[in-house]
Design brief:
The protein has one domain: 3-Layer(aba) Sandwich (Glutaredoxin). Helix content is about 60%, strand content about 10%. It is built from 9 helices and 5 strands, in the order H-E-E-H-E-H-H-H-H-H-E-E-H-H.
Length: about 220
């Protein structure tokens, strides 16, 4: 066998070894869990990624810059959204703040700032007078508009849907991620601090894309 062919076979073997290693890198039941009952996604043509978080969670706060950088690199084939976890009355109030910001069109503008207000400056946003002033100062939201959004039937309905989603996803810790309504990841399963979840999520996104492409090709 010529030296070129030996080199070629060596490269192929190395490539196959890398592929097998990547395929075995993350295992179901170890690094992520399959949901017993899949949850419908909003758009079946895209891979959906859900971040389940709370403004009350310090781990979500430290995770925020990592997931934002990762999210910025996602293409149009991936749909990303956030769902607040509701483990208590206090967390339900933080969920109302999140959905009020969405309803007012300032969620993207304020998301990181809310984390900073709670975890860096110790602002008690659970006090509605404090959160009203925060929205006014940080995003120019009129106090009456904020109060109307915060107490609206629409926001309350979204909070209740978040409660139902958390149960359907089997969420017991934050931050968690759910990929395509099928797989749940948390930092314990991912085997490291929250940023490790992003590697598992990317792996599952690629797997779901391959599965979808295979179904289309058939």
């Amino acid at each position: 066998m010529g030296s070129f062919m030996k080199l070629l076979f060596g490269m192929v073997a190395a490539l196959l070894a890398c592929v097998c290693q990547a395929q075995a890198a993350f295992q179901e039941g170890v690094h992520y869990e399959r949901l017993p009952v899949p949850v419908d996604t909003a758009d079946a043509s895209r891979v959906e990624v859900v971040e389940v978080f709370s403004y009350a969670c310090v781990h979500c706060y430290t995770f925020e810059p990592h997931i934002e950088a990762w999210r910025a690199k996602l293409d149009d084939g991936v749909a990303f959204r956030r769902v607040p976890a509701v483990f208590s009355r206090q967390w339900a109030e933080f969920a109302r703040i999140f959905y009020a910001a969405e309803q007012l069109g300032v969620s993207e503008q304020l998301h990181g700032s809310i984390f900073e207000a709670v975890h860096e400056r110790g602002e008690n946003l659970l006090d509605r007078s404090v959160s009203t002033r925060f929205f006014a100062k940080a995003a120019g939201v009129d106090g009456k508009d904020y109060e109307a959004a915060l107490t609206s039937f629409s926001v309350e309905g979204q909070v209740q849907r978040a409660v139902a989603a958390g149960k359907a996803y089997g969420i017991t810790a934050t931050p968690s991620m759910v990929v395509n309504g099928k797989f749940r990841i948390d930092s314990r399963m991912a085997g490291g601090p929250p940023p490790a979840m992003l590697e598992v999520a990317s792996f599952l996104i690629d797997a779901e894309r391959t599965l979808t492409k295979g179904e289309v090709d058939r």
